């Protein structure tokens, strides 16, 4: 892939002035060949394979950074959903079945520490159509895992456009969120930041906390996630009076440049690691830094604040243009790809919540357009489990009915109320706690069962 001198000059300016970065390089590893009826033997194989296959991941990241002058912020690993390994080990170890997920979690955490990555995703279960005993024990282990490990991230896929919403799984997910918040009370419920609840989860997502190595992937694969909200905002700022279609064209051109960089990094990482190239996720992923906000992009378009009328339409323009531009720049676009709206990780989003311009209900409406869903949202610590289940179910319904990925990553902050702030630090930032509707949905969510898929699921 050749870059023209003008492209190189523009890209260097994006790094220096507009917060452009490659957000993550993520190595996906299949662990199904580690299965054993003895959980400790299987966990030993898991540790050995991860540390062997990912031994050069950090050095590869460092080498590409030095060669290209490109900041690559995170290095990560995603693995086969752990529930798949737990099932085989529980069959041979029924007396200790509740401890089996914890044995795997400890091995994953040690492997992450040994390889020097920031996070390891895949303590996951795919339960949209039903819950096996192994998946149930994996879900029940989540609060302990998220409270006692440093690097391990978890996810649950509880809904799909093909089969509907598994409300039994939704209720278990809500209970896991509540218990995780309580068990990490001393850190503001921080453990919940490493747990994502999905509808239509992608199998090739490089972004945490929802990354896992899906069954349809090669044995080992590398993915890249690019970002660049500041670059897009700067491009729009240069066009203060342009019609919206011209803004869309400019965003497409900018997204093309950002994704070209991601493709270059992906090709180099694949060659250096000797693994199959996966996808470029061209999501606009914000950080708490000023000038790196998706909310500020929408405000640059002409909104007084994100959350006012017109916000969903502006986000639709942005998301569509980002995807169109990125698709032209890479033959392997995948993952989530679009615009993230995490409240704590986006200073513009947090400011809008504090002003009262952005409510939970308006944010939910906007997730019908964005690439993920309700992300990094701090809630009052006394939010009932059934209310959490209702919030999850609503977001899953948006994903199921629109045939798109949606997700929920919410953090009930123990001991805090709406309007107070919570600090998470680093890329996870800080957030005002959003008020939650106090009306009850208990009788509805406790019915359990499956909310059936839409009629469009019967397409073949």
Helix amount: 40-55%
The level 1 CATH classification of the largest domain is: Alpha Beta
**Which geometry do the CA atoms define?**
globular
Largest sheet: 11 strands, mixed
Low-confidence stretches: none
CATH topology of the largest domain: Anaerobic Ribonucleotide-triphosphate Reductase Large Chain
Radius of gyration: 21 Å
Which class of secondary structure composition applies to the elements?
alpha/beta
The overall pLDDT average reads 89
Q: What is the number of independent domains?
A: 2
Strands, total number: 13
Write down the secondary-structure element order: HEHHEHHEHEEHEEHHEHHHHEHEEEHE
**Ends apart, CA distance between termini:** 37 Å
Relative strand content: 15-25%
Tally of alpha and pi helices: 15
Please give the CATH architecture of the largest domain.
Alpha-Beta Barrel
Summarize the structure.
44% of the residues lie in helices and 17% in strands. The protein has helices at residues 5-17, 39-53, 57-68, 82-91, 100-115, 133-148, 167-183, 229-237, 244-273, 294-300, 311-329, 347-355, 360-366, 385-402, 442-445; strands spanning 22-29, 72-79, 119-126, 152-160, 164-166, 195-199, 220-226, 276-281, 374-380, 406-413, 421-423, 430-432, 450-451.
Structure report:
By secondary structure, the protein is an alpha/beta fold. The chain has helices at 5-17, 39-53, 57-68, 82-91, 100-115, 133-148, 167-183, 229-237, 244-273, 294-300, 311-329, 347-355, 360-366, 385-402, 442-445, and strands at residues 22-29, 72-79, 119-126, 152-160, 164-166, 195-199, 220-226, 276-281, 374-380, 406-413, 421-423, 430-432, 450-451. Strands 1, 2, 3, 4, 5, 6, 7, 8, 9, 10 and 13 form an eleven-stranded mixed sheet that branches. A two-stranded antiparallel ribbon has the order 11-12. Strand 9, helix 14 (385-402) and strand 10 form a beta-alpha-beta unit. Helix 3 (57-68) packs across helix 9 and helix 4 packs across helix 6 (133-148). The longest helix is centred in the middle third of the chain and has 30 residues, at 244-273. The radius of gyration is 21 Å and the shape is globular. The relative contact order is 0.13. The mean pLDDT is 89.
